[in-house]
Amino acid sequence: MSRMLMMAGCVLLVCAAAHAEDGQYTPLFNGKNLDGWTPKFCTRAAGENYRDTFCVKDGLLTIDYSKWHKFRGEYGHLFYKTPYSHYRLRATYRFIGEQLPDGPGWAWRNNGLMLHSQPPQAMAVDQEFPNSIEVQLLGNKRGPDERKIRHTANLCTPGTQVILWGKLFTPHCVSSKSKDYFGDGWVTVEVEVRGSESIRHIVDGEVVLEYTKPQLDDGTLLDKGYIAIQAESHATQFKAIEIMPLED
Length: 248
Description:
The chain is mainly beta. The chain has a single domain, classed as Sandwich (Jelly Rolls), CATH 2.60.120.560. 8% of the residues lie in helices and 40% in strands. It has one helix at residues 3-22, and strands spanning 26-27, 37-41, 54-57, 60-63, 76-80, 86-95, 110-117, 133-138, 154-156, 160-164, 167-169, 173-174, 187-194, 198-203, 206-216, 226-231, 236-245. The longest helix is centred in the N-terminal third of the chain and has 20 residues, at 3-22.
């Protein structure tokens, strides 16, 4: 390859990197209502906001269980209307209150960003989770002397698989290397998604987990899909959910 071609290639790479860093985030949540979002609960049809679980309170996108008495596996998801392929996603979240009675132990202070997801209308009525790549969001509240470490920005794979550490990863979840976040403060997580090529989880400016070739269990590569958040029995609030499109 000539020196001129090499220099041109380097310029293109620099321009792509600058675009990713200098681009503007735009909100997916408008701070007023759920326009552009569709709920889907297990045992319910797409579009039914079961017990008004997804709502807006004081300008915050809230998963609210005040109208529930106990949890019987009615896992819920809230999907944004547009599928995306190459982008950077930024979400600021916190957990509030206590977990709903009979919620599974693993769902305590647990939510998630579902990426490359199937659309809500394609889910079976009794399907608990969409086929997607989940950036698992966890919180902690135990004291430092009795704590069990809970990383955030982990990976879970409902109906999917990825290439991790150079090989096909088939277990359901793997932890990131993020620090443990205690209390009720806000936590910001970013995710850089490059179609079916690679996904990086970023917390406090540090890449805490990365992998390649997101795919369905049958090996079909996932190049794009919908973005969703969860309702898994613990009340959660999102102050912002924002997106920055990236060049292919």
